[in-house]
Each structure stands twice: as C-alpha cells, then as structure tokens.
Specification:
It is a single chain. It contains nine helices and 25 strands. The protein has helices at residues 41-45, 58-61, 71-82, 117-133, 166-187, 204-211, 234-248, 278-294, 349-360; strands spanning 5-9, 23-26, 51-55, 86-91, 140-143, 192-198, 221-225, 253-258, 299-302, 308-309, 325-326, 331-335, 341-347, 366-367, 372-375, 378-379, 384-385, 392-398, 404-410, 420-428, 435-439, 444-447, 453-457, 460-469, 473-477. The strands form six sheets. Strands 2-3-4-5-6-7-8-9 form an eight-stranded parallel beta barrel. It has a seven-stranded antiparallel beta sheet with strand order 1-22-21-25-19-18-14, covered by helices on one side. Helix 8 links the parallel strand 8 (253-258) and strand 9. Helix 8 (278-294) packs parallel to helix 9 (349-360). The protein is elongated, with a radius of gyration of 23 Å. The protein starts with a strand and ends with a strand.
C-alpha cells in the first residue's frame, strides 16, 4: 500500500445497526461451560455479524428425567437477541440419564441416544421441550454436530476411526435426524431445520446415504464444516455438495456452520501441527468467508468467538484429557486450572478483519457478474511483469448501497508462502466516478494514484499495477451513498 493514499476507513456497524447479514460467528461449547459469555456479548455484537451458533447441551438442561431447566441457555439467547444477533441452535449432545456411554465422556460429546427406545423417546421429548421453550426466539435448529466423525457419533467406549462403518452411521444419523426434524416442525411450524453439520464436506457418500432415508423431505438446510489449511479447492467442494443436494431437492439451502483457523502453532483440534500465526489466521478467515459468500450460501459462520478448550476426547474425572486448548478465536483468552477461558478477552487482528468484512458485506450484498480481465502489464514490482497466476482469486459483488466490488487475492499456500506484488485489471460497465481500494485486514480505504487508472472509453477502465497480496483486497466502484 506504500504508493497509495489512505483516505479513510470502513465504518464499523454493530449487529443492532444492521437488518441482516450472511455472516455469523461460533458461540459454541457453553453446554460445557468453557467460557464466560458475559464478557463476550458486547465485543462479539460489535463485530457486525448477525448469526451466533449455540449448542443446546441436553445433559446440562435435563439433569433429572423429564425435568428441563433452560435458565442457563435463556440467558445466552436473550443477551444475544438484545444486542441484535440471531442465535441458532445445534441440538446435541448425549445424556448420561439415558445413555451409559455418556457417563464416561466429558460433556457427553458424541453419544447419540440411539441405544434404546427409552433414549430415543427421551431425546424427542427434549427436542420438543426445547423448541417449544424458544419459540419466537430461535427459528433455526441444527441436528447434531459432525456425525460423520468418530468422536461425534460413538457406539461404545474406545471406538476408533478404524472401528466405525460410515455407511451404518449415515443411515443411523439419517433416521435420527428425520425423527428430530419432524419433532421440531410439529412443535413449531415456523421453525427451520438444518441437517448434518457434516465434518468432511468433500466426502459426499455420507450425505447421500443419510438423505436417502427420506431426511431430505424434512430439512430446510444442509450445514457443513470446512477446516483445511489449503483453501484453493473450497469453491469446488461447495459446488459438488450443492449438486448432490439439488439431486434431492433444489430448495434445500446450504449453511457453512463452522470454519476457522488457529492463531498459534501449538493449538489442538482441527489443523493442529501447522505453523499458524495471528497473521495467517486473519488471511484464512477472509479468504474462506469471501468464497462462501460468493458461493451463495444462506450464511457462513466463523469458528470461533474466542480461544477455548477443544474437549472432543475428554473423559469424566480426567481433567488432563480435556485441557487441550484451541486458538481459533477472534478474541484471545487466558485459562484457569479447569480450562475455562478467563481474562479480558482481547481482540486479535482477525477480530478487526471480520468486522471490516461484515461492514462491507452487510445487508443484502450479493454475488454478481462483472466483466473483467486480468492483464499482463510491465511492473517494476514483480520482476518486471504483473502477476497473472492461476492462483489469483477474483469474486465480484454488489454492495447494499448499489456500489460494486471486486474482491481479489493471490491464493498461495499461506502456511508456507506469503505474497506481495501487483496485478492489472480491465473492468467494464461499472461506475468509475470513484474507485477505492479497501484493505480488508483492517478496513483501511485507499485512493488509487492517477497513473494507476486509464479510461478505456465506452464504460471501460484499466487499473494498472495495483497491489496484490495473499490477503483479500476490495476494489470498490462508485461513490458511497
């Protein structure tokens, strides 16, 4: 940005200042009480994302058979709504009152109530009670979490990935989710149901096997998760999943429910063992969410609001088994001796990047077609020529005020590579009265220099040797209204 003049910054919009957004954030694991939400509400709502994903915590709510205490969840739901956010609820996990395996597992993670008729009926009673209780406050319910993963759909203690049969699990999940969806919709006819929260979105067989049970007739969304240090295939994976769903029912929409990156190299959970930094987390957040928005998802949720324990393989009575810290948060935290996130919850660079993206893409920003071409021009900054590599991603959008934007970056493998160079575009049919470049890392707005723009006539403009990095930048056409 050294050649450009900074002329301002994107205004931050809190969740209460916008009507809608296709961006959300994870507020999960409060069923296991792993952080203090009171210190997070204001900071999360100020980001400007709209959706907040919660987990319902059956065992925290029903501690005595047939008695439901929603007070803990009421407080979370009401606090988020009061700040303009839209909580949506993942119905999970198990309950030791009905499933023996759940007595051994911290948080009853991945202990589905399928071992007896009593457990199945207790689950449906709990679902009906939950939906009835939150009618008018929550409208989207997700059925379970990552049922295609061995830690999240268990049959017995000590079961490993090698022991499971995904075809069996898919049929079990399909029947389980179908019964759950029917219970949700019978209780609240206005409620919508999301199936799956699939962990491996590129593996279509599990989704197909579950949908073939008849589940597709009763769900409104398929939700998927996507954790990968390599994001070049993301659009293709989403497209393939979309094609499969269209085969069953094109009216079913897609939700990206969990996707994130760590900010430290010593984290546990998804993508552990990579050289993650705060800078790389910020890049991955922007790259993946922009792709999701362009792919037309109903909404896309970043995991997560803050650093917290992963606790996917925890054992009751063995604290060391669940003190496995993950650093996916846009807020950093300290941890007490029980692994609970404490401290002041400090904003990371990714926090400001998510806020900038939410500001730019607020309300009804939508993918469009913009006529453009990358050009190969002489450049003093990239060994003599602009970059025209196939790794350059360009996603066009129409913003809520009528302006248009090209969001672009060089999608080099960010774990081992960084990039900074230039690119040139010819763009047609856009409002060129004012063109601004926005750095989505922090929302800084820059004015292009005179030598960077060339009027091509008939509605065309050439943008020459403009900055190109491995982090998304936005070229915005037209004056802000």
């Amino acid at each position: 940005m050294e050649r450009l003049k900074k002329v301002g910054a994107l205004r931050n919009y809190s969740a209460s200042e916008i009507v809608t957004s296709r961006l959300g954030i994870g507020f999960e694991k409060l069923d296991r009480n792993v952080f203090d939400p009171e210190k997070a509400y204001d900071k999360v709502s100020k980001i400007g994302v709209k959706y907040a994903r919660l987990q319902s915590g059956w065992m925290r709510t029903e501690k005595e058979k047939g008695v439901y205490d929603f007070a803990w969840l009421d407080s979370i739901v009401d606090n988020l709504i009061a700040r303009g956010m839209k909580p949506w609820l993942c119905l999970c996990y198990g309950n030791p009152l009905y499933t023996p395996l759940a007595k051994l597992v911290f948080g009853a993670v991945g202990c589905p109530p399928i071992n007896s008729d009593e457990a199945k009926e207790a689950w449906l009673n709990y679902v009906r009670a939950t939906v009835s209780h939150f009618k008018g406050r929550i409208s989207v319910y997700e059925v379970w979490n990552e049922p295609d993963c061995p830690y999240s759909w268990k049959h017995r203690d000590g079961e490993t990935k090698a022991d499971i049969d995904l075809t069996v699990n898919a049929k079990e999940y399909g029947e389980f989710a179908l019964a759950t969806a029917i219970a949700v919709k019978e209780t609240d006819t206005d409620a919508r149901v999301a199936g799956f929260a699939i962990g491996h979105s590129a593996v279509l067989k599990f989704v197909n096997d579950a949908l073939s049970t008849g589940l597709y007739k009763y769900i409104d969304y398929v939700s998927f998760h996507s954790y990968s240090s390599y994001d070049m295939r993301r659009e293709k994976v989403i497209t393939a999943l979309r094609r499969l769903i269209d085969h069953y029912d094109p009216k079913i929409k897609l939700i990206q429910g969990e996707s994130g990156a760590q900010s430290r190299s010593d984290g546990n959970g998804a993508m552990k063992g990579f050289a993650w930094t705060r800078e790389k987390q910020t890049k991955m957040l922007l790259r993946t969410l922009v792709c999701d928005l362009y792919c037309g998802l109903e909404f896309s949720s970043y995991f997560s609001c803050m650093d917290m324990i992963e606790a996917l393989h925890g054992r009751v009575g063995d604290k060391s088994s669940y003190l496995d810290y993950g650093y996916f948060g846009v807020l950093s935290a300290e941890f007490d001796e029980d692994g609970r996130a404490t401290g002041e919850y400090t904003e990371k660079p990714s926090y400001y990047a998510l806020s900038a993206l939410a500001s730019l893409m607020r309300e009804n920003a939508e993918p469009i077609n913009i006529p453009y071409a990358l050009e190969d021009l002489p450049s003093r900054r990239v060994n003599g020529r602009d970059c025209t590599d196939d790794s350059i991603k360009v996603y066009p959008f129409r913003l809520c005020d009528g302006r248009t934007a090209l969001i672009y970056w060089n999608a080099v493998y960010l774990i081992t590579t960084s990039y900074e160079g230039t690119a040139s575009f010819s763009v047609f049919g856009q409002d060129t009265e004012e063109i601004r470049l926005i750095d989505l890392r922090d929302g800084s707005i820059y004015e292009l220099t005179e030598e960077m723009t060339e009027d091509l006539g008939d509605g065309g403009v050439r943008l020459k040797n403009i900055p190109l990095t491995d982090t998304p930048l936005a070229l915005v056409f037209g004056k802000e209204k």
